[in-house]
Amino acid sequence: MDNARRTLIKAAAGGACAVCAAPAVANAAPDNAAETVINNILTRRSVRSFNIEPVSEQDIQILLQCAMAAPSAVNEQPWDFVVITDSDTLEKIAASNKYARFAASAPLGILVCLNNDKVKEREMCVLDIGMASQNIMLAAHALGLGSVFTGIYPHEDRVKGYRDLLGLPASVVPMGLIVIGHPQDAADKTAPDRFKQENIHMQNWSGK
Q1: What number is the average pLDDT over the span 170-195?
Q2: Number of alpha carbons in the 13 Å side-chain half-sphere of residue 208
Q3: CATH number for the domain harbouring residue 70
């Protein structure tokens, strides 16, 4: 995505989550916001292989703006984010968590955390974190980046590992690490069609 496109994205909606509505995705009409957003959602996929090109500070800022534009119960925004670009730290994560082993070859990890000091609606806070995480991944795809969510909570060993490695306070729970970078195979933009008619129930469960 060129600088002019990025500038346009940041200018719209005060530079916040407008990027989520302007992905650089093949076959999307640039003047049709609805088609562009839907195409971005339907073509996003998990990427686990990255090249060495770093993610720019501008792109990182856009990802975080989109994360914090997510809805949350009573607007309490119970999240904090640890941005990890240090290669040694990413290698330590990969070595200690087999489910995030591809972090060793990625230029960026964003640790999405639940800050209990901000939480009042405890029943909803995990959903809030999920929506913020999805915003990051959709924004990454819009910017031509690849990403994958690696779960941490509620596995206590993973929670402790990240807390010890990154010096998280006791009130902050690492929920998931999103590994991000430029896809190794940028030409592969296919995503599976997950739509299943049998998962839909009209009006009630039986549909009658």
Answers
A1: 88
A2: 1
A3: 3.40.109.10
Give the C-alpha separation, 58 to 6, whole Å: 9
- Please report, as a single letter, which amino acid is at residue 196: K
Span 51-82, pLDDT tens digits: 999 999 999 999 999 999 999 999 999 999 99
Residue 114 structural domain? 47-186
Distance of CA 183 to the CA centre of its chain: 15
Structural domain includes residue 42: no
Cβ-contact 113, 81 below 8 angstroms: yes
Nearest C-alpha neighbor of 78 from the set 133, 151, 10? 133
- 152 lies in some domain: yes
Domain total in the chain: 1
**126 Rama sector, left if φ>0, alpha if ψ -120 to 50, beta otherwise:** alpha
DSSP 56: P
Q: Looking at the domain assignment, is residue 34 inside a domain?
A: no
Res. 160: pLDDT tops 90: yes
199, exposed or middle or buried, with CB in 10 Å at 0-12, 13-18, 19+?
exposed
